[in-house]
Amino acid sequence: MDSFMPTEPTENISGGPAGGARSDSFDRAENPATAERVIDRLGELYWEKTYGGQDAFVCLVRTILSQNTTDATSQPAHDALIERYEGPESDLARTLAAADHDELAETIAPAGLQHQKATSIIQAAERITEEFDNATEFDRFVRDTTTATVRETLLEFHGVGPKTADCVLLFAGGQSGVFPVDTHVHRIYRRLGVAPPDADHETVRESLEATIPPKKCGFGHTASIQFGREYCTARQPVCVDDPSACPLFDLCDRVGVETD
Ligand code: SF4
Question: Which CATH class is domain 17-51+177-251?
Fold first, then answer.
């Protein structure tokens, strides 16, 4: 299936092809709601996958680094952090709990907001070592505990908001029914008319998770991001110049899109 489809970029919040996802395929409903039709169409355009299996602490660090920047800049920061702090015998959470703040900030500087992100990473590492002892036990907690409990716990961490918590639930926990809402998802589903025009991130998430079958939420998230990069960009959605250029045009209300 993948050989005829675009490959998920390596520099992606999911970790790309090495991120632990597997190609999958999902049934089509007889009369799907618009949101599900959108996700099915994106699956045909990009990929259908099931996510899960990433190390939860590494996933948490990766997602913190991705905040307020692109994957293209957060990926080098992530790679530099792993190279500097991960060792074959050491636990990454314990190592980062003891890390020097300025040294970590310098290491992750390519991601921007490095002092803020260093603080979040060190505090998360401290909390994980205090509450779970190490990254392995934290990983077990994320995989084996209910979505609501993991989400509630992660949201108590400094610098962890709903998108970061949901990415950990999806990419590490493999928990279905979780549709992280980043800036692309927030923009696209309001333009489409799937979520109300004034919906905040949480309202968009609730709309999507209420309508889209749980197993389609994971690739729905990553394929939507790719669609937001290629077609429904923030400044110039392709339909403005050429409606036929958008593969979702027939499903879209184009809310708030300048059409003159
Ligand atoms: S028709 Fe325009 S606004 Fe709607 S999804 Fe396509 S590019 Fe975005």
Answer: mainly alpha
